[in-house]
Design brief:
Length: 137
Amino acid sequence: MTEIKYIQSAGNIEHTQLNGFFVDWPDSPSPQRHLDILRASHGVEMAIDKDTNQVVGFISVISDGILSAYIPLLEVLPAYQGQGIGKELLNRIVARYHHLYMLDACCDESVDEFYVSKEFLKVSGMVRRNFESQNAT
């Protein structure tokens, strides 16, 4: 079984450790842009394969640090899914932000039950996407 270590900072991560994420995105961020996103986030947790030193999963948080936080991204590489990595990443973020009134996530319906199992409530919401934006790359 793969040995995974978890870290809370992207400070020592290189973009070369961030390959294979954003599966099925029409215009996915490059590994360098992905690293920029992680470093600009209020909080991150990353799962790293100890044998390859590659990031195999991550979660990021945007927050005011006082009342609310939002989880925009949680992803585990396909080859590592089903090993509890996503659950561990989410557990770590929930523990770190437990003091806040709101910890929200907007997700695809296919993963609703994952969040419900971690005591998130299903609500309706609205999103706006600028698919022509070059900010993803």
